[in-house]
Amino acid sequence: MSDLNHPIFARFYPRFDAQCAKAGGDAHRAELLAGASGRVLEVGAGYGANFAHYPPGVTEVVAVEPEPRLRARATRAAAVAPVSVTVRPGLAEDLDVDDGSFDVAVASLVLCSVRDPARALAELKRVLKPGGELRYYEHVRGKTPGKVRFQRYADLVWPFFAAGCHVTRPTEEWIARSGFTVRRERHFEFPEPARVNPASPHVIGVAVRD
Predict the structure, then answer these.
(1) Nearest-5° Cα angle at 167, 165 to 171
(2) Rounded distance between C-alpha atoms, residue 17 and residue 174, angstroms
(3) Which alpha helices (H) appear in 21-166, and where do they start and end?
(4) Sheet holding 85-88, edge to edge
(5) Cis peptide bond upstream of 56, omega within 30
(6) On the CB side of 85, how many CA atoms lie within 13 Å of its CA?
(7) Per the domain annotation, does 62 fall within a domain?
(8) Residue 1 falls within a domain, yes or no?
(9) I need a labelling partner for 128 at 20 to 30 A (CA). Which of 25, 145, 178, 180 fits?
(10) CB–CB of 114/92 below 8 Å?
């Protein structure tokens, strides 16, 4: 199955993300993609919020999105993107692309919600060329006991309202243990006020396939 239906989430997420974009989310996406080049695979592309930020060194983007309403919006965004973008259905855990066929893989606010993160990371490693880059922008588990405790309580209900999203995942640690070498990584809180937001701890990083 390559479709995941989340009609309510698909309706409100683009509006929420538009507010985040004004608060700094657009700058984070630009940071994520700066200097990317060659052929790119983006998993969980959502409604195509990253597309406008791909630099000219990118020759092609294959964008995978399993939610049909978000995928339709992404297709419209692809039509006006500054680089060539093809949007297709699919799951991060089961990518219908050849081994070693991409220079860069992009995971942006998606590894929090995939059903099997280990399998998704294995797939991202599989499709990258040796030395290829995994670029990630994710919200992750907090660094303080109080924040982690808050996140654990929030995670009892958060996935039901946010299309399976979990706020307790140590995604950056999983990446480092999945056959990637982390080249750079930046942790930050976003958006404010962070203390009342269980999803505020974020990371942007670049890791290279070993």
Answers:
(1) 95
(2) 25
(3) 26-33, 68-78, 117-127, 145-154, 158-161
(4) 85-88, 58-64, 38-43, 102-108, 128-139, 201-209, 180-189
(5) no
(6) 29
(7) yes
(8) no
(9) 25
(10) yes
With CA atoms as reference, report the closest residue to 168 among 187, 149, 196: 149
Asked if residue 179 is part of any domain, the answer here is: yes
Which range marks the domain in which residue 58 is found?
Answer: 7-209
Total number of domains in the chain: 1
Q: Which residues, at least 6 apart from 33, have a Cβ–Cβ distance to it below 8 Å?
A: 50, 53, 54, 55, 58, 106, 135
In a domain, 45, yes or no: yes
Q: Are 136 and 207 in contact (CB under 8 A)?
A: yes
Task: Specify burial of residue 80 (Cβ count, 10 A radius: 0-12, 13-18, 19+).
Answer: exposed
Per-residue pLDDT of the chain (210 residues; tens, 9 = 90+): 567 778 777 777 887 788 888 889 999 999 999 999 999 999 999 999 999 999 999 999 999 999 999 999 999 999 999 999 999 999 999 999 999 999 999 999 999 999 999 999 999 999 999 999 999 999 999 999 999 999 999 999 998 888 889 999 999 999 999 999 999 999 999 987 777 899 999 999 999 999
CATH number where 37 lies: 3.40.50.150
The answer to whether the beta carbons of residues 69 and 95 sit under 8 Å apart is: no
- Distance CA(20)–CA(202), nearest Å, equals 13
116 closest CA partner among 174, 42, 61: 174
